[in-house]
Amino acid sequence: MAAGWRNISWSKVMFGNRVLNRHAALMNRMAETLGVDLEEALRRGSLSSEEWRDALVSCASCDDPTGCVHWLGEHGAPEDRSCGAPADEAPDFCNNRLMMARLRTTLEKLGPIGAPREPARVED
User: DUF6455 domain: from which residue to which, for each copy (predicted)?
Assistant: First the structure.
C-alpha cells in the first residue's frame, strides 16, 4: 500500500463521484502549480494507475480542502503567473506533498519527451 494510506481515516474512505471529481481537480491543479505533469508521469511509468488512485483517495481524505483552494489561489501554475507567486513545493498540509516532490524531481531528470539524452559513459 502507498505510504499515504497510513494517515487516512478509514471512516472517510467511501466517497461519492462529486467528492472524487472535486479532489481530482484539486490534485491536478496542485500538480500544475508545481510544474508536475501527471499525464506524462503516467505515460513514462513514473506514476502507476494504482499510485494515482491512492493519491486521489489521499487527497479526498484531506481535512482542509478549503485551505488547499486558498493556497492554490495564491500560487499560479508555471504558465500562468498572473494568479500569484510560484510554488517550489506543495504546502505542508498536502497529503500528496512527498509524491508531488518525487514526481517533479523524476520528471525534471528525464527531461521533455523526445529531448536528446546524454550518451552513456563507458568506463575504461
Answer: 15-105
CB of 8 closer than 8 Å to CB of 61: yes
Domain assignment of residue 121, yes or no: no
Nearest C-alpha neighbor of 51 from the set 4, 105, 104, 107: 4
Domain of 36, in residue numbers:
14-109
Lowest mean pLDDT among 37-41, 71-75, 80-84, 91-95: 80-84
Number of domains in the chain: 1
What local confidence, expressed as pLDDT, does residue 20 receive? 86
Does 115 fall in a domain? no
Confidence of residue 11 (pLDDT cuts 50, 70, 90): very low
This prediction's pTM: 0.73
Burial-class residue 29 by CB neighbours within 10 Å (0-12, 13-18, 19+). Answer: middle
Average pLDDT over residues 24-43: 93
Closest CA to 27 of 58, 66, 4: 58
